[in-house]
Design brief:
mainly alpha, 6 helices, flat
Amino acid sequence: MVKAAPRHTARVVQLRKGTTLEMVRLACPDATQATRISESFGLAVLDSNGIRDLHERLIVETADSLSEGLAERAMQIHLQRIVGAYVGSAHGAGQFYTRAVTEARDATAKSACDDRDEDLDGPVGFDGKAQRRREFAADMGLQAHALLMAAEGAVRAYEQVVGESWKPFERPMDNIGASVDRKAAELQMAAFG
């Protein structure tokens, strides 16, 4: 009987995908939408370009102050983490904003139904539930937009300092259970000889 050569299979490492700036832009209001929200709800109009430019300068100046103490690769890793934090924060705010808008739409649709007493406006001088949800969503929209601008400024600073486009760090997914099971199976099979 001919013994077949053992097959070695390539190990596939799954990566945990990081949050990209494009994902954040899809979740957060852009400057035009933020202005519409501000005007519709009587809120302050944000200086989008000012927020972005300030954060870009902040990170560039921080990198300049660290340049003598950090090697090029260390600077890149440091800025990768900082920019990742800005992008992650903006993404979380954008997701929260999206949920707030959904809740505001649902509450507004329910309050439009004349057969529902529980969704009627409150007593005179008090806002109804749907109005409070719309106002909350508006506040969350402006916060998400401000954090988007900060993240864009951080990404621009990264490109300026490092000289390449920022990409989110993708770490290998921890799959400890599978590796322990595999090791146990190998030990058990070794017992057979």
